[in-house]
Amino acid sequence: MVDEAQIQARLTQIHNRIQWLADAEARAAWVNGAAADGRFWPEKLKLLDEADALLDKLEAGILTKK
Question: Where do the structural domains in the chain lie, given as residue ranges?
């Protein structure tokens, strides 16, 4: 059973974190800051993989309800 509310909440958290990382990278690019060197890529990829898995669960749960 898929708890859609929990999945949606986690997807929101992932979105917010990825947005924060992207903003940090954009700011760092202007001043050659630490985030400009790609150090956030591993975390972003991990979060994107998690989001993908959650969306698969959500889709499977929706399809089984029909």
Answer: 4-65
